[in-house]
Specification:
345 residues; alpha/beta; two-stranded antiparallel ribbon; 14 helices; 11 strands; 14% strand
């Protein structure tokens, strides 16, 4: 039997992930307020027979921003163009993308806050007047040629809305912030995905996966696929609570959803640095990861669940972190006014 190459395996994984995405707003689980507001915007645009207002979606990774962009294009029967902020390094990159759009197209820009400043300034005019000025030449002889572009809808996604410049943020007609999902909503998502993947699943097995998914549908679907693999190889193919627990233990996801990186951060903070305070860069070196990985992947979940606090002097472990590791916390570990320092490192 031929082995799959790494590229083929990655392609299969992406195809599976794409297959689990909802196709319409009616299929979306959770995010009721954003879903209702966005549905109203799209329905009004259809009644007027025009492109919807530009849409900005913000929130942590894995909550469905890309999925909603795809749904907007599908609901409007429009073509979808996908790019990302880091890929648009020059104004010319954006001009090339915009000039290739047709009327009513949806342009999705992921991580829009990471777009280059010249491209941002060009985008202002494109969003407002559906026009870009292409500069030919350099210096005193440079000439700006106005290029009309057809009406389109920009859907921007960002995990850090605070980094968006005010003039860009104000040009979006609709802004939606996606919240973390509760276990009951994730349970529905796991059941839906299991049906699409033809996975045998008990209610208790689904609840176990949902409880360890960190409030994030992307993680829930990923854990479901890994538990499915375990069930097919080491059990009878049905995901029961016992199978789910054994599988998630193998993949180092504990009952609260903490993974290897999360526990590594807490372990370094408590065992090596006595609970802190310690700077994020030092903490990242201690666990062998990049600072951005610790700050953007592990830290938000640990803070949200009360295991870690940010102080002006650095990160500190809470009593819950010591207890989770089975250690005795020194007293006091942190003070009530320690959290949320303005000049945090």
């Amino acid at each position: 039997m031929r082995r799959l190459t790494a590229a083929e395996a990655e392609g299969d994984e992406r195809a599976l992930e794409a297959a689990l995405r909802p196709r319409s707003l009616d299929e979306v689980v959770g995010q009721e307020r954003v879903r209702e507001q966005l549905g109203l915007v799209l329905e009004a645009a259809r009644l007027r027979d025009r492109a919807p207002d530009h849409v900005l979606l913000s929130g942590p990774p894995g909550l469905g921003k890309t999925t909603l962009a795809m749904i907007i294009a599908h609901e409007m029967s429009a073509a979808l163009r996908i790019t990302s902020g880091p890929a648009i390094t020059h104004a010319g990159d954006l001009a090339s993308i915009l000039s290739g759009l047709n009327e009513g197209d949806v342009l999705f820009v992921d991580e829009i806050h990471r777009m280059s400043r010249p491209a941002e300034e060009m985008l202002y005019l494109a969003m407002e007047d559906f026009r870009v000025d292409v500069v030919i030449g350099k210096g005193p002889g440079a000439t700006a040629i106005p290029l009309e572009i057809p009406p389109f809808t920009l859907v921007g996604a960002t995990t850090r809305a605070g980094l968006l410049p005010g003039p860009l943020r104000d040009r979006f007609g609709f802004t939606g912030h996606l919240e973390f999902y509760d276990p009951a909503e994730l349970d529905l998502i796991v059941h839906r995905s299991a049906g699409l993947l033809d996975v045998g699943l008990t209610d208790q097995g689904a609840a176990e996966i949902a409880a360890r998914s960190r409030g994030t549908p992307r993680i829930a679907n990923r854990l479901l696929r890994r538990v499915r693999d375990f069930a097919e190889v080491r059990a009878d193919g049905v995901v029961t609570i016992e199978v789910a627990q054994r599988a998630l233990e193998l993949f180092e996801v504990d009952p609260l959803g903490l993974d290897r990186l999360d526990r590594g951060v807490l372990d370094a903070l408590c065992r090596r640095f006595g609970g802190g305070p310690v700077g994020i860069s030092t903490l990242a070196v201690a666990v062998g990861e990049e600072r951005e990985t610790v700050e953007e992947v592990a830290e938000p979940f640990l803070v949200r669940n009360g295991f870690l606090v940010r102080t002006p002097r650095g990160r500190m472990a809470t009593p819950a972190a010591w207890e989770h590791l089975g250690l005795s916390a020194p007293a006091p570990t942190y003070t009530a006014d320690a959290q949320g320092g303005l000049f945090d490192e």
